[in-house]
Structures are given as C-alpha cells and as structure tokens.
Amino acid sequence: MVGKTRMSGAMDRSQFHIQWLLLTIGLLVVCPSQIALSQEIEGCRIFPANNVWNARIDYLPVDPKSNEYINSIGADIGLHPDFGGGMWMGAPNGIPYTIAADSPPKVFVAFTYSDESDPGPYPIPSNAAIEGGPNGTGDRHIIIVDKNTCILYELFSAYRNSDGSWRAGSGAIFDLRSNRLRPEGWTSADAAGLPILPGLVRYEEASAGEIKHALRFTCQQTRQAYAWPARHFASRSTDPSLPPMGQRFRLKSSFDISDFSSPTKVILTALKKYGMILADNGSNWFISGVPHSKWNDDQLVNELRTVKGSNFEAVDISSLMKNPESGEISDATASAVEDYKDN
After folding, report:
1. pLDDT tens-digit series, residues 104-149
2. 97 Cβ neighbours under 8 A, 6+ residues apart
3. Quick one: which of 96, 99, 94 has its CA closest to 44?
4. Mean pLDDT within 207-227
5. How many angstroms separate the CA atoms of 340 and 200, rounded?
C-alpha cells in the first residue's frame, strides 16, 4: 500500500556498544527481581524481556530526520501528562485498565472496523473501566488483562448497548507472553496498530523508582506511513517532515533532570533509556498513563511542561529488528536476560 514504510537492515556495532551490552548484562543478572517487578501486572509479564517495548534505546543512533520530526511536532512545546490523580470531564484522568480475575463471561463485540479487528470473544466484566467514564465521548478505550491466561484485550470507542451487548470501533487481542505483532496494515485499539497497555505510565512503577519500558505518546500530524513495530497509519499526508506511526523518540542524555521531583525524575529517566513511541494522533507531546489518586497533578504538569520538544531526538531503531513480523529484538542484552530468567 502506498505510503507504508518498514525499517530494515542492521548497523555495525562499535566497540563502545559491545562494552555497554556486556556491562548491562552483568548489571541485570545481578538484579533479576527488579526486572520482573517493572515488567509485570498481576503476575503477567508485559511481553517478553526481548520485546521492543522493553528495549533500551539510549545507545542507538539518532534518526537522520530527527530535526524535521521534532520541528513538525513542536520544538518549543512542552511535554504534557495525559493522566493524573484528578478528574477530567467528570472522569478519572488517564487510560485505566481492568483486571479480569474471575473469568467473566466472554461476549462478542460488533466492530466498525471488523476487517482489522480480532473477533474475540472479549471478557468484559460488568465493572470494566472505560476511558473517560461511562458517559465519556472521547476514545473510550477499554483495556482488560486476564490474569489467569495473561491475555490482553483492548477496545477503542467501546459502548454497551441497552440489551447488554457491546459495540466498538476496533478491537485487538494480544498474548502477553508472545512477541507476535498485528497483521501488516491492521489497526488495533490504537491508530498505530500497537498495544496500549505496555506504553502507559503507572503510578506503581513511578513510586517504586523505575520504569523499564517505552512510553506511549501522541502528536497532531503524522505521515501516511508506519515504522516497525507499528502496523498501521492514520494520515493522508505524505509530507516527509512528518513522523510515521511507530517512530521512537528519546530525551537527550544531556538534559539535566537533577532538580525534578522523584516521580517526574523516574518518568524522565525512562524517556532517556527507553524513549517513547508515537502511537496515535492527538495533542502534541502528550504522554499516556493510568489514573491514580496519588499522582500530584500540579507537580506533573508544571514540571513536565518545562521539558520541550527540542530536548528530544528521534532514534533509529532499525538495528533492533530481528523479523518485521515480530516485536522480538536482536539485541544481545535482552536475549541474555531472558535466558538467565528462564534458567
């Protein structure tokens, strides 16, 4: 299909890169429990350790089009937390998720985009949290984790009908134990065809002191293209200065985070190490998270807004791709950690 892009190829590893990998492997092997802590929800690891969402990208090269992408999104625009502890439009601020612990009855959902949605059925509990609340008019995502099977269910624009049945714009089902991507060209509950849950900032991680995965973010204008691991675009523009869905960005290593509060510092550290993935059209530099009463909204907004687009750079992650149909990375560090934990 015209306008789609897929990154491929491999880059030569420098001696510095090799030394960095060896050092990282050593550090991770010493502290395996910390790895598991940040990668699990209710005993379910959020994708394998060698998944691209869990890959450090602080050592990878800058994308040649970095400046163009940054300027198109807004070099002078600050980060904004699209989550918090308060209310927005009468509902908790952020994208909530629900744990399906008691195997609720599964229901089939009528989809607007049925040709790119997983038919299900979906285990939607009666108390399933909806983004924006039951009366919300926004994206109305429903995210469900079945803790017994470690299967992730995600719906976009989900509504319950008067007879108890459900309808939604689109839906996707992910096995959290697998690196399998959506079929090429398919959307998900997100425009980029990616899962939403692994990119959310969670209070439990921030309060524990470390986030060890990439974050999800949005911008207003994207290109009619997508880059691995994204599978879908949502734009009619072919302007090469606009970023494709799936483009990875990171906070520059030179950006000083020493004066920020602890929760914000955790988020910014993750943005340096793991970066963030462009997953949907929306407000510029909005990062996504889960509502929690303990977030300090004023602190988050006032601190993150001082981090401007110019403090970021787009990253070329093409060397991580092992197979364009999989989220598994070829990075020796993640593979070594996975082998260690399995043994």
Report:
1. 789 999 999 999 999 999 999 988 999 999 999 899 999 999 999 9
2. 41, 129, 143, 144, 145, 197, 200, 290
3. 99
4. 97
5. 27
Local confidence band at 185 (pLDDT 50, 70, 90 cut-offs): very high
Inter-residue contact 174 to 231 (CB < 8 Å): no
How far apart, in whole angstroms, are the C-alpha atoms of residue 16 and residue 67? Answer: 25
- In sequence order, the 6+-apart residues with CB closer than 8 A to the CB of 299 are 261, 263, 264
Q: What is the C-alpha separation between 100 and 250, in angstroms, rounded?
A: 33
Say what the pLDDT of residue 331 is.
Answer: 58
Strand partners, 44: 41
Residue 93, CB half-sphere, CA atoms under 13 Å: how many?
A: 20
What are the distances in angstroms from CA 253 to CA 27, 58, 271?
Answer: 20, 8, 10
Question: At residue 162, does pLDDT exceed 80?
Answer: yes
Q: How far is CA 92 from CA 79, 295, 331, in A?
A: 20, 11, 38
Q: What are the boundaries of each domain within the chain? A: 15-89+181-342
pLDDT of residue 39: 72
CA separation for the pair 8, 274 (Å, rounded):
20
What does the H/E/C string look like for the chain? CCCCCCCCCCCCCCHHHHHHHHHHHHHHHHCHHHHHHHHEECCEECCCCCEHHHCCCCCCCECCCHHHHHHHHCCCCECEEECCCCEECCEECCCCCEEECCCCCCECEEECCHHHCCCCCECCCCCCCCCCCCCCCCCCCEEEEECCCCEEEEEECCEECCCCCEEECEEEEEECCCCECCCCCCCCCCCCCCCCHHHCECHHHHHHCCCCCCEEEEECCCCCCECCCCCCCCCCCCCCCCCCECCEEEECCCCCCCCCCHHHHHHHHHHHHCCEEEEEECCCCEEEECCCCCCCHHHHHHHHCCCEHHHEEEECCHHHECCCCECEECCHHHHHHHHHHHC
Q: What CA–CA distance (Å, rounded) separates 185 from 162?
A: 33
